[in-house]
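Sat 14:20. Reprocessing the chain from the morning session after the first attempt stalled halfway. Input below, unchanged.
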Amino acid sequence: MQVRTLQHDTVDALCWRHLGRTDGVVAETLRLNPGLSAQGPLLPAGLAVDLPEPAPATRPMVQLWT
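Finished this time. C-alpha cells:
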C-alpha cells in the first residue's frame, strides 16, 4: 500500500495512522523504502512511502463447551 506523507510526519506516525500499529511495521517499512531513513526523522510533505500490507484481522475463537 502506498501513502503520502504529511508535513513533519515520522515513519512511526505514518505506520500508526494507516496500519494502527508500529510493532514490526516500522522496520518493514524502512526495508520496503531504501533511502527513506536518509530523509531524516521528520519526513517532507508529499513523499510517497510504501507500507506493508495490513495483516487480516483475526477474531479470537471462544470455545463454549469442552
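The chain has one domain: 2-50.
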